[in-house]
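Readers outside the structure-tokenisation community will struggle with the description of the input data as it stands. Showing the layout once, in full, would remove most of the difficulty. For illustration, here is how one protein appears when written out as sequence plus structure tokens:
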Amino acid sequence: MTIRPAEPVTPVLYQPDVEVPEEGEAATIAEMLESLRHISTITYADSGHALRSVHAKSHGILRGSLRVLDGLPAAYAQGLFATPASYDAVVRLSTTPGDVLDDKVSTPRGLALKLVKVPGARVDGSENDATQDFVMVNGPVFAAPTAKKFGANLKLLAPTTDKAPRLKVALSAVLRGAEQVLEAVGSESGLLKSLGGHPTTNPLGETYFSQAPVLYGPYMAKFSLAPVAAELLALTDAQVDLADTENGLREAVQAHFAHHGGEWELRVQLCTDLASMPIEDSSVEWSQQASPYVAVARLQMAPQAGWSEQLSRLVDDGMRFNPWHALAAHRPIGSIMRVRKAAYAMSSTFRFENNGVQQVEPTDLDALAVERQ
């Protein structure tokens, strides 16, 4: 069911002074790039193929269309969503590590969405493109409050790349057990999940969140993508059997889309109070009671391959997903988003240069049509 606010919300207008760079942010970015480059260099040396520094392993690659809803309340009819329209879309499902691991090392699920042929004024650095990207994870808040803290966490994580994969599988099982104990008493741990304790759930049943804010026309907002089709809702919290396979999540996606399509709602949460909905701290969950997520578009997928080697070459190797591929009306804001600009650029440049692929944003998704059923 499409979510509409019970009462009109009063969103806060964006002002430049809501963004306050951290002290030493440039140094934080430099350290973060060093950590990400370390991850990429190790995985490239191992495989001879350059991978993403994070979210290296894809579990699903899907093509569909995003339809902007008609009759949106004025505050939500902004930027891409100002008028009803339909856009071709590609979705990449992934998990967070920068190395390709057995799915039994269970970490948070990610979803990246790219729309093509999107008209309008662009953010700096994206002037010649016509795409709009959304990068999401299946949790409402980011793992670290600011770029500096995230950079410190990444610095600790980078040396573990490609170290003791069998031990990681065993550790993940222990962490999942600890997470199950917490969830049994109504709690959870983002840290345990990020280290490998995420439940072995089907990524198609998850709800995904941008976690960090963006502009929403004159306002500020976060995004969410939630399943609404009955076949997808049935997969919420559904366990995937990973006992005899390293790629069980991918196989689950393929099995679903061999017979079913899918439909999700893209939802927007407007910032209505800067004190309780901070822009510079992405670890704080914005109150959905104060400002609910409101549906602004529908993402629809027909039955299709779900994942294949050919799709992987076209999308894993040939595409970049970056929140800075955006309309000016949806420019990323806040500490985490600012450092992402340099981080994503470094990671994609390393990957494209070492794989001999040109960095060009797609103008259509015709090449993916061969994989539709």
